[in-house]
Amino acid sequence: MFVLEALRTAGYEAYAVGGCVRDFALSREPKDWDVATSAKPDDIQKIFSKSFYENKFGTVTVLKDSMEIQVTTYRIDNRYSDKRHPDSVKYTSDLKEDLTRRDFTMNAMALDAVSAGDTEGDFKSRQQHRGTLLKPSSVSPRIIDPFNGQQDLRDKLIRAVGDPKERFGEDALRLMRAARFAAQLDFLIEENTLRALKELAPTIKFVSHERIRDELVKIIMSVRAGKGIDLLRETGLLAVFLPEVMEGYGVGQNKHHIYDVYEHNMRALQYAAEQGFNLETRLASLFHDVAKPRVKVGDGPNSTFYNHDLVGAKMTRQIMQRMKFSLSEIEKTSLLVRYHLFYYNVDEVTPSSVRRLIKNVGLENMDDLINVRFADRIGSGVPKAEPYKLRHFRYMVDKVSKDPISVKMLKINGDDVMKILGIPPGPKVGILLQALFSEVLDDPSKNEENELKKRTMELDKFSASELSEMIRKAEERVKTLEDEEKRQYRV
Description:
It contains 24 helices and eleven strands. It has helices at residues 2-9, 19-25, 41-47, 95-100, 149-155, 164-170, 173-185, 191-200, 209-220, 225-235, 237-241, 243-246, 261-274, 279-287, 292-295, 308-322, 327-338, 351-361, 366-379, 386-400, 414-421, 427-442, 449-459, 464-489, and strands at 14-17, 34-37, 51-53, 59-64, 67-73, 75-77, 89-91, 110-112, 142-144, 157-158, 188-189. It has a seven-stranded mixed β-sheet. A two-stranded antiparallel ribbon has the order 6-7. A two-stranded parallel ribbon has the order 10-11.
């Protein structure tokens, strides 16, 4: 590696460390590269002209082509008052002392990728990252492993370095990282480490919502997302930062489900993860029934959960706002939760109702909405013949996708309405357009300029309130079908 070579040539020790070494040991391509060195930050910057001092903890970012490599001076961390960052650091000349401060044994290894006597011409590419980086010579790279991290990798164990209570007490984010690694790697957490994790779970409250969100997203986006969420529950972490999801634990459902609310949501998420769905679809699969404990009426096979879709969308928005998700992620996820109970009985669903759903959800989100419904049905444990119905519904979406699904797709606009009626701009213009659009949703053949002009003059005899009532009744017809679906499944 050019960074190691340059530091070694300048007379300093230098090793690849952390996650990149773990990935190397697992025969995976490292995503990020970190280097530990005996060189001080000022010395590092003298060696690498394209670099900048990143923080007060001795880390310098070295730029190489499109890569950023974090180079940190060997250090010993002092106490962590905020449960997240050391109050101060002390530089050391001992690599092992530097490795001792790291979180887990699998991340506390160093890779000696450059051997004495090697020259650039001796290297044969064996593993590359973005075009260049790790180029071991004919002498195999040596892994320095003072805490038996390689054995823990073989045993598929996540074990804290040294005293787990001390490690977690230093940086509470490590609690989330342990669960995240377990989900990503399909590892178990070593017994003493797990015991300390459970004991110190409440300290996750000292970590910013943004950092917790980042770790949660990594769990959600792993293939074993369900396992990760359940580990968060088992350790007590979920109850601290996602209590709304924990509310469903042990809350029984009705005859259409064999799992409680929590397990149903977790299994829906797991299905979404196995299918490779995007982040918003996975989050919606986890949150789609989050409101059921709050709206449940009755108990046993005939219990009901009316309006859990509406309440759940509101809760989803609140959860994601609290965790600092982006506005676009919040809007889409809450939209998927809001409409996940769309009506889709094969013999009864109409093109009009499908067009109205597309109007509310957006054509670009329909595949994701259908995928959430798939996850919902699979997660129920009694999916029956629903996949066929959903495939038929997808066919219906494709069939009507070119029909008008917004006012902008009408063949006349507001200027046309004002010209036809000889009226100035005002609220009635918009209401007239909405009334025309409501009729076109029911019958797209009416979206013809002459037909719309004629209908505009006919509708002009109605007041704004009367037009609004006509629009409301058209929407109510669709809602009646949806309510029938909800009553049938007692949702």
